[in-house]
Amino acid sequence: MTSMEAESVATILCTSKQTRFNIATPNYRELDIESLSIVVTSGAQSTTAKGRGKSKVRSEGTEILSNAKLRLKAGQRYALLGRNGTGKSTLLKAIAEKLIPGIPEETRIAILQQTEVGDVRANEALPGSSSSPKANGERLVIEEVIEKATARSEVKREIDILTNAIGSADPCGSLRGLRQLRYQRLQRELFLKDKDARLRSGTRGMQARKALIAKEKEVAAMQAQHSQSDEEISPEVLARETSEAVDMLAELELQVEPTKVAETESRAKRILGGLGFSEEYMQKPVSSLSGGWKMRTALAAVLLQDTDILILDEPTNFLDLLGIMWLQNYLASLADGDNAPTLIIVSHDRDFISLCTDILIIKDKALTYFHGDLPVYEASRAEKRLHITKMKEAKEKQKDHMEKTIARNMKEGRAKDDQNKIRQAKSRQKKLDDRWGLEVSSQGNRFKLNRDLVGFHLTSRAEIEVEVEDRPVSLVLTATADLRFPGPLLSLEKVTFRYKSTLGKQTKASAAPSSFTLGEITLSVHMGDRIGIVGLNGGGKSTLVKLLVEEAKPTSGTMMTHPRLKLGYYSQHAVDDLRSLGCPPPDDSTGESPEAPLTALSLLTRDVAGALDEGAVRGLLGSLGLPGRLASDVPLCKLSGGQLVRLQLARLLWRRPHCLVLDEPTTHLDYETVAALRDALRDWEGAVVLVSHDRWFVRGVVEGLVQDEDGPDAEEEDEEERERPRRRVVYRLRAGQMTVLKGGVGEFEEGVGKRVRKLMNL
């Protein structure tokens, strides 16, 4: 048994079972780890728990996995599914940081983390390494991507050290430069050996500690050599190490030869172009980019790396449909190459994760696997549950019949002193007591005791158990307020908009290049309408949304709103705003926050300002998935992104709005909550104006599709539409011009697909 206590990475504790024998050369693109347990503790708990024993430490933390099996096959693409808060990001971090015993240190793992923009694991700072003289924020985008992926500045730094040493007038200069580099490299190796020794126990731990001691001696010896005076160095040693310095310099220069550098730069530009960067944007400083474009830069750096395992946590956030579809095609194309990396993806976009070959589900502190895509998994799961339920009902009916027969035979046998009936009743009762249960094996064959449960004689067959489903995610939207008289809720007539020159300069520093104008937009929104607005970044969607919610005024044209309109606006930055609100900066004098931390309940209570009592506020939060103590006791800064989305919806819905303007509401939500929100918005009585790059979500909310293909559900939706017709329209915004897509999202997707194919063929 091997264990890990990773206090250096805050608070992730892992244990796993490993064999003591080196069976074969490891395949670094595969993982096969038994009995994996992961516990997360706070920093304070981790500190106070030292010396108390591992069981005590585990009891004080939050258990993410317990006795699970982590099995990844080389070259497969896994979609990691699980509700918000189940530990998906923790598991990914434990894999990427190689905190799980059994992951070889030589495995190349690259990760894009949702919460840490630009954090690329392959570029971790180690003792003895030196950063580029140019600060990260001052690097150009193309330089940042190449540096993060290849650590080219580190190679150049070593080349400069050796070049200066060899070219110096000092006879011992080459030797000094060589020893300096060797000492720095040994320090990095010592860091890894120390980490390995801390993560292991038992036989492997003893071997790791021996290796650490040997490396410490090697570092000490090199340090002694490095501090030798010129008089202590013999001519033979000087000649040998001078020659070795020249050879090392030649090897380093091969890594930055123009052909290889040009090839890397060409790949980087192709990836950046696919993610939406123009040539002009590639030459911008990283510090001038917004958070969304910094995330794209980090994603490009991850994709450029040569890795064994590639981990992407919500990579579609901040990407438009062109970037999403390009990334989907790019990841699928990796499978065609030799040594294709093993891929793990977390995403709420159901269309995007259709590229995955396998489903990995984290639930109830366990990992389960399914070979196939998400629709097939859901259909298979529903079919299996239905089959088990029918089997259980049939067995219960049969059991009830046998119990009645036993009771009748016992009664008649005793009344008539019929021993045959009494023996028959006792035999059947013995069958019920000892051999009742499943009559088929897990493979569906007829159950055989000596094959399926060898060694069991009494109560050998298990009871038929129907898997207990998690409580389905349910989002209940409030009824709209009385409108009193009809009319359009929002109306735009030949509206144009152009940013002022000063505002345009500010905007261009944080967004993709565009005209920053809207030209003659005509749009009306009535009660019950479903309006979808799609388009690539820079087309004017955010500008149009600002006009609709009156955060901006049109340059020309007419905009009118219903006099009794109550409008709810969900901004794509809502989660970040709530996090800032819940985590105020500390007081400079005391170093502490000036106020008690806000909770969902206290924030919403402050918003309603007495319009609702506490019971009504709690009821609203509970209907959106924030019940009880989660709403009243957990500070906003500790809520997950999905929980903050629910809170923001509650802040909108308590006013009972007539129209919801939603700008990318699915970001941060898990796929089950996205499905629940889709269903709730599809049937809500108010109007919805939706801006989203999630094709599946738009098809459901705006186009009203229950499923992607025609079927019974779609027919039922048609009947409801006849009873209460809705206007369903999908608009495309491109270069400030809005047109109706008669083919809906599918037409937009087809057009973007043509551009993606051109980008892939470049």
UniProtKB/TrEMBL annotation:
Keywords attached to this entry: ATP-binding, Coiled coil, Nucleotide-binding, Repeat
Gene Ontology MF annotations = ATP binding; ATP hydrolysis activity
List the Pfam families: ABC_tran, ABC_tran_Xtn
* Keyword Magnesium assigned: no
Coiled-coil stretches: 392-435
Domain ABC transporter, which positions?
A: 49-390, 490-735
List, alphabetically, the Gene3D superfamilies matched.
P-loop containing nucleotide triphosphate hydrolases
Task: Supply the InterPro entries for this chain.
Answer: AAA+_ATPase (IPR003593), ABC_tran_Xtn (IPR032781), ABC_transporter-like_ATP-bd (IPR003439), ABC_transporter-like_CS (IPR017871), ABCF (IPR050611), P-loop_NTPase (IPR027417)
**PROSITE patterns given in the database record:** ABC_TRANSPORTER_1, ABC_TRANSPORTER_2
The identity of this protein, by name, is ABC transporter domain-containing protein
* Organism listed in the record: Apiospora kogelbergensis
